[in-house]
Amino acid sequence: MTRYAAMFERSGQRALGAFLTLGDPGIAECEAYLDALVDGGADMVELGIPFSDPVADGPVIQAAAVRALKAGVRTGDCFEMIGRFRKRHPDIPIGVLTYANIVNARGIEQFAHELAEAGADSLLVADVPCLEAEPYAAAAKAAGIDLVMIAAPNTPQATIERIARISSGYTYCVARTGVTGADRRLQLDHRSLFESLDLAGAAPPVLGFGISSPDHVREALDHGAAGVISGSAIVQRIADGASPAEVAAFVRELRGATEAQRLDFASVAL
Question: Carries keyword Amino-acid biosynthesis (predicted)?
């Protein structure tokens, strides 16, 4: 059983993911924040490799990438951070979100191999469309990691079927149009997307882009997502100088929004 499959089983398909940019605001500080995500109860982590032109990210995560790059953090440093995190947390699924320039600079196969060697479970290349993803899927499969693809409510059925065929681990479903960011309220209309993914045999849907409060977590899970990922709200707290303990406390609040459903699932399982 993969770490993702085990996670979805443990959480009763009510998983909490937490995102941060690797190396923000520096390597040592970032490692403390990484541990804080787990201390707060995150079921999975999604980690961004800093890049100068992160086209899928809003201003909060873009600023985090700039801070990391100014601190001298490079892709090799990110692999090393992942490796150290894996040794400290052997069971937490680790996903990496990055961009095609970063992957291709090393070579697709080499990048996937190094990512697997570091201990990551999945790769999401945010600016690679589904029609161009076959080489990335092949490299990920050869390295023994999952390629995660993005789906949205307006994704055509043919693309959903392609996503189901070439990706695995989980399906990243966007909760909003545009780029990442923390919204005051969600505008969810994803039930038909979740149903289409399920019928196509795709990996479980995890909702991101705008998850920034316990209410958002609860709403997304009640809407049918198998999990959520909160990113900008966490990254903004880091930018504002929150301590690792304060970040852990925020993640714990988000985790609390999943607990009632987990208890119900556990009761049924027993």
Answer: yes
What length does the chain have?
270
Q: What is the pTM of this model?
A: 0.92
How far is 62 from 54, CA to CA, in rounded Å?
6
Is 63 a residue whose pLDDT tops 80? yes
Average pLDDT over the chain, rounded to an integer: 92
| Residue where the block lists tokens 């479903």 | 173
Residue 228 has pLDDT above 80, yes or no: yes
- Looking at 46, 114, 121, 146, which residue is catalytic? 46
pLDDT at 210: 83
Domain ranges of the chain: 3-269
122 contacts: CB under 8 Å, gap ≥ 6: 4, 93, 94, 95, 96, 140, 145, 146, 147, 148, 168, 169, 170
CATH 3.30.300.20 applies to domain 3-269 = no
31 is catalytic: no
Question: Considering 24, 43, 57, 114, which one is annotated as catalytic?
Answer: 57
Residue 70 has pLDDT above 70, yes or no: yes
